[in-house]
Amino acid sequence: MINPARLHSDLQRLDRETETYLATVESLSEDELTSPSMCEGWTRADVVAHLASNGRRLVNLIDWVTTGEQKSVYPSPEARAQEIAELAALPRAELVREARESAAYFAEQAQRLSGEIMVEEVDLHGKPVPATSLVALRIAEVVVHHHDLDTAWTIEEADPDSLLNALEAAVRTMRAKGAPGMTLVTEERDEWVVGDGALRVESDREGLLEWLARGETENVEADGPLPALPSW
After folding, report:
1. What is the DSSP string of the chain?
2. Cβ–Cβ < 8 Å for 221, 202
3. Residues of the chain above pLDDT 90, percent
4. pLDDT tens, 174-187?
5. Per-residue model confidence as pLDDT tens digits over 163-176
6. Residues in a beta bridge with 123
7. pLDDT tens, 43-70?
8. C-alpha distance from residue 139 to each of 105, 115, 169 (Å)
9. How big is the CA angle at 73 (ends 111 and 5), to the nearest 5 degrees?
10. Higher-confidence position of 232 and 78
11. CB 3.0–4.6 Å: which of 55, 62, 147, 156 could bond 102 by disulfide?
12. pLDDT band per the 50, 70, 90 thresholds, residue 32
C-alpha cells in the first residue's frame, strides 16, 4: 500500500500545478495555440494535446498497479502520435475542455492507489517506474510541458518538490536510454549517478532540468565536455 499521507500530499501538489497550467492554457488564443512551443516540431496545441492524452493514458499504469494485469500506455508509437495529432486539431474550446477533463480524470483515478497494490513497479516506454511515483510522474509531465508552452510562466515557478519529481523522471530516462556516465549534482544537494558516473555535472534544480529535458546548457557546469543526451 502507498502511504496515504504521501499520496494525499502528492495529489494536492498535482492539483496546484495543474490549475496553474490550465490557467495558462485557457489564456492562450487560437493563434497563440498554433504558435511553436519549446518542444521541437510541436506547436503549443500539440503540447496541450500531449498532456491531455497523457492524463488519460497514464491511468493504464494505475490499472496495472492496482490489478496486477499488465497494460501498455499506448498500443504503439504510431497510435500515440495519431491521438496527439487528433486532439491538437480540435477547436480551441474543445481542446481546452479536454485538457481540463483529462487532468480531472487522472486525479480521480489516482485515488485508487490508496488501496491494495498488486505490483511494485511498472514499465513506461522501457523505463521502470515505482508504483509510489505514478502521481509524481504526472506532476513531472505537467511542470515540464507547462514550461514548454513558452509563456510568462517558467519552470522556476514550480514547487521545489515538483522540480525534484521532474528531475527524477528525467534521470530515469537517461538511465533507460543509455546516456553517457554522469554524476548529477544540484545546489540543493540532490545527487544521481547515471552509468559509471564519470562526468560530474552541477547546477541548481532548474538549470539541471532544463539541460536534461531540453538541452539548455547555459546554467550547468561540468568537469569535461557536455555530452549529447537522449530525448526525454
Report:
1. ---HHHHHHHHHHHHHHHHHHHHHHHH--HHHHTSB-SSTT-BHHHHHHHHHHHHHHTHHHHHHHHH-----SSS-HHHHHHHHHHHHTS-HHHHHHHHHHHHHHHHHHHGGGGS--S-SEEEETTEEEEGGGHHHHHHHHHHHHHHHT-SS--GGGS-HHHHHHHHHHHHHHHHHTTPPPEEEEETTS-EEEETT--EEEEE-HHHHHHHHHH---TT-EESSPPPP----
2. yes
3. 94
4. 999 999 999 999 99
5. 999 999 999 999 99
6. 128
7. 999 999 999 999 999 999 999 999 999 9
8. 14, 21, 10
9. 25
10. 78
11. 55
12. very high
Whole-model pTM: value is: 0.94
Residue 231, pLDDT score: 81
- Phi, psi (deg, nearest 5) at residue 204: -85, 175
- Distances from the Cα of 60 to the Cα of 49, 63, 66, angstroms: 18, 5, 10
The dihedrals phi and psi of 29, each to the nearest 5 degrees, come to -80, 170
Q: Which residues pair with 200 in a beta bridge?
A: 183
If pLDDT is split at 50, 70 and 90, which confidence band does 1 have? low
Beta strand 199-203 with 182-186 is: parallel
For 136, the grid coordinates are: 509524481
Q: Is 68 left (phi over 0), alpha (psi -120 to 50) or beta?
A: left
Q: How far separated are the first and last CA of the chain, in Å rounded? A: 29
Cell numbers that stand for 205 in this block: 534544480
